[in-house]
Amino acid sequence: MTVTVRSFAKINLGLRIGAPRADGYHELRTVYQTIGLHDVIRVRPTTGSRIEVRCADPRVPSDESNTCYRLVARALAVLKARRGFVIEIEKRLPVKGGLGGASSNAVAAMLAVEQALGKRIPANDRLRIAAEVGSDLPLFLLGGTVIGTGRGEEVYPALDLPSVTCVVAMPEIGVSTPRAFADWDAMHREDGSGDEQGTAQLTRPMASDRMLKFSHTISAWLGGLPQMLSGVPGKRSRGRAETPLLDLVRTGIENDFEQVVFPQYPALRQVKRVLTHAGASYASLSGSGSALYGLFALPRRAQKAVAALHENDIPTVVTRTLTRKQYWAKMLVSSF
Known about the structure:
Elements: E1 3-20, E2 26-46, E3 51-55, H1 67-79, E4 84-90, H2 101-117, H3 123-133, E5 145-149, E6 154-157, E7 165-169, H4 177-190, H5 196-230, H6 242-251, H7 258-264, H8 266-277, E8 282-285, E9 292-296, H9 299-311, E10 316-320, H10 324-331, E11 332-335
Parallel strand pairs: 3-4
Antiparallel strand pairs: 1-2, 1-11, 2-4, 2-5, 5-6, 7-9, 7-10, 8-9
Helix pairs in contact: 1-2, 1-3, 5-6, 7-8, 8-9
């Protein structure tokens, strides 16, 4: 029996980077949002106990370093299932584009394995093993609008942002996430006194304050969503989707990675300008990039952005954000 599932992408609605932690990671605050762009994962049981990963894209590893391999191996151990599987990845999302493709692939593969075996891993164990494999994985066990804290692996379902048109630009530029974090740290060391110990004392309280401010901003925005979505007197000219978007813009949230990635890759800054000038209610780098997106209240503005980006030979697609219900309803393609 082959199980086929969609492996959806994510975008980040704001991303705040905190100070480096003792474990080498950075403390993060973000709002994840799943979108309709996806890869396709096919999982087929085989004889023996070998896990085999296949993908036509040579940039995707096929050995034990592959995220799908690592998560499925852990899942089989939890299920106490000695079975082999072939995992086929049909790649449509950019590799290392900031859309969470590899993480989403792994979660989709794990869920497909569960479907193939007719067994289900307890929810807590799912989240635990996903977090052990990578920071972005747990969000794909929730879908919709998700709050991410810790190094991004601590996830909490939020009230869903209504589905809106999303334009995703995928410039053919490779951005290294470790390099982006290193540049961020270097930028903040330069802001200090020059003495490494003194810099740590100066920047850590500042980082803590910035994280707290972001948390308060997002909490206030999310707290107002129920009222916005139920309709507010005097705002009848706005649609259900437009109102939360405009309020999100007013919070001033942004992706911290833009401060270090845009100077390195000015073309990405220009892509954001095009999205904004075309009428995006909100535009941002996703993760550390290189993918950027714009959220649009009006489809005609989205088409204007696509046309402008295509003129500059930037691969661009139109999709929609996915609510949690839509995410799970659209995931399973087939099992036969």
